[in-house]
Amino acid sequence: DGPSFVTQCPIAPNHTYTYQLALGNQAGTFWYHSHLSTQYVDGIRGALVIYDPHDAQKHLYDVDNDDTVITLSDWYHTPALISTSTLSPVPDSGLINSAGRFSGGPAVQRTRINVFKNLRYRFRIVSLSAQGAFTFQIDNHTLTIIEDDGVPTVPYTVDAIQILAAQRYSVVVTANKPIANYCVLFFSSPRYMLIENMQGSALLRRLGVVPLAKITPTHGHSIVNGTDTYAPLTDPTPPGGSGPADVTFNFTFNPDPTSINASLINGTQYQPPTVPTLLKILSGASTDADFPLHDQTLVLPFNSTIEVNFIGGAGHPFHLHGHTFSVIQSAAGGPPNFINPPKRDVVSS
């Protein structure tokens, strides 16, 4: 689905590439972005929603449209490739639906969301960030999770959501509070600064602005990326059940001592191949030995169950294209969950 030098070469300047996707029964909240260098951090990114006319959870909400998609992103004031010349650069600001403020900057109008009193809204929250891990909340309102990363979930109600880069959630929010403006907020660690805030109100009032001094992070019940907090709505059992996997990989993450802004997986830094991986496969490559070590290409048996264990990684998101996986155990501890673990396509390493 587009990673440069994996499925294909990058799209050359002044050229185009057309995708034709056979969606089948796939539906949910996704996103698109450039997969070359740091281009998506500079803005080549956006939400991609596939609506399901037969959604089994449609009875839980009244409104689900373009106005209920909420994107969260970090933003740099210099091109990202320049910004990332230092270790772990701190974003200059954060954006909700492409609008935001920064210290010493202009008081631009914040994103506004309009709601009708007593209607139930399905907000599709999409993290388009480069490295920010956020906590998202709406002042004085609870969030009922019904989807994560395109997977419908058993409804689970929280006060706030922790969301990593590339993760997506659908939450149902009922506009049943007194007519007022309510702050929509996300904030990030380690700076723990307020990145963005906006107001929400009932009865189609436009969102106002609450002074920053009055906004504080939530201390309520927050969703975490664990293994026992919420479950898939259908087919909850992980592939292979509780039995051993057909193939097991340990991925150990470490910083590269020879480069200020690179990491190693199992002692090797990934380097893009000179010939796209898919083209090599179409030309006959079929074993690990057919690919250079720095390609980090793993050849797997068809229809097999794979277990991946992450060691280290400092919370870096791990994303799998074209598949979801079951998160059977978290680094936070606790026994493996082989009954109804969360299913998603992005998890913290």
UniProtKB/TrEMBL annotation:
Endpoints of the signal sequence: none
**Start and end of every Plastocyanin-like domain?**
1-54, 66-204, 271-347
InterPro entries recorded: Cu-oxidase-like_N (IPR011707), Cu-oxidase_2nd (IPR001117), Cu-oxidase_C (IPR011706), Cu-oxidase_fam (IPR045087), Cupredoxin (IPR008972)
Q: Which SUPFAM superfamilies match?
A: Cupredoxins
Going by the entry's taxonomy, the superkingdom of the source organism is recorded as Eukaryota
Record keywords, A-Z: Copper, Disulfide bond, Glycoprotein
For this chain, one GO molecular function annotation is: oxidoreductase activity
Give the record's family classification. Answer: Belongs to the multicopper oxidase family.
The name under which this protein is listed is Multicopper oxidase
- Whose protein is this, by species? Sphaerobolus stellatus (strain SS14)
